[in-house]
Amino acid sequence: MGPYVESMHSNGITELKEETKANGHSNGTSNGHSNGYTDVPDDGIVYKTPVNLEEYKGPTPPKQYVWRNIILFVYLHMSAIYGVYLLFTEAMKYTILATYILYLMGGLGITAGAHRLWAHRSYKARLPLRALLVFFNTLAFQNDVIEWARDHRVHHKFSETDADPHNATRGFFFAHMGWLMVRKHPEVRTKGKGIDMSDLYADPLLRFQKKYYILLLVLVCFVIPTYVPHFLWGENLRVAFFTCGLLRYTWTLHMTWLVNSAAHMVGMRPYDQSISPSENRLVSLGAIGEGWHNYHHTFPFDYKTSELGWKINLTTMFIDFFWLIGLAYDLKTVPKETIEKRAKRTGDGTWPGHHHHHHGHQSNGHVSNGHTPDLKDD
Ligand code: ST9
Ligand code: ZN
Ligand code: ZN
User: Domain boundaries in the chain?
Assistant: First the structure.
């Protein structure tokens, strides 16, 4: 993946050193550290963000609505509202707890599974963990892993262009969920065909998930979450279906979609100010660690998707736990010095390390020791 060399360390964590600065994200400027801005002071710090999504924008292609999806989303959201009502009225305590746990399980199937393991191959997992993640992933029903990962790889490679399936220059709603209600831009398919997916087709578990996807998703995303509360603690089937099933599913979808909408628009850009993805701690909270999105687009192969370790990052804790018991290995990360160099060269000046070296700036976001960065996200 790109211009990086790997070096193994005895702790099983692979660090990637950045060899050259090219990273495939270019909006027409090749940057020394200035991203085309001429008023960059010598220290490379610019206290404003030059990212203006309107500037990336091309002509919006005509929309071809997919009414089946629109109708399903309307039904889903009405059901979710009813599910919230049931949570506060009829649902048993265990059912409320189960709704929450199922959200985290499905969420991990996306974050630790589809995203960090399969789309980015930022670590490796042994069979039992891969099987667990396929199960969790199916619970989240966000298309099969191979389709999800292909869309995601195109998203990284062609961010903020027509080939990006959820191109954020087309507005918050399009990036959030609108993209699932219209036919894809032809560029998505054209550019997508060039993405190598052979590594994922090589995994029999993923081929199995793809082959039986419809059957599996009905079973895992809806039938199991409805019947388990019924058999284990006697919950009413209707209540379980609308809470553990539909409300939990809808909630997980929105938490995922916020990464494409909010975290592509709102927040600081300490690592690369020339791209729209941002550091957004609220999104990280809902998306169990995936809101540190400026870092992630700058260093997509880091299994933590963040510089900040376990900070608002349940997914990293989950992977570290499985590393501890030997089921996850070859965890890739980025050395501190590489991050620092990159942040100073291309960041927006909010990287906390700066405060360590440059006195006299306003103390907004100031940290005293420089080792427990506390990123601000407006
Ligand atoms: C869902 C996915 O919600 C959410 C993904 C979010 C990603 C987030 C990423 C952020 C970072 C990670 C953070 C995780 C945080 C998680 C937190 C959890 C707490 N390349 O698809 P078709 C081909 S899914 C190459 O029909 P249309 C395709 O193969 C929700 N080719 O396009 C086919 O070719 P062929 C549930 C591509 O007709 C042809 O194009 N699911 C690519 O335009 C047509 O494909 C849904 O709602 C590509 N990238 O329809 C339904 N893409 O014919 C989802 C397509 O040769 N999908 N092709 O086989 C659909 O209904 C349709 O895809 C559509 C577009 C209507 C959206
Ligand atoms: Zn993104
Ligand atoms: Zn990614």
Answer: 4-20+58-357
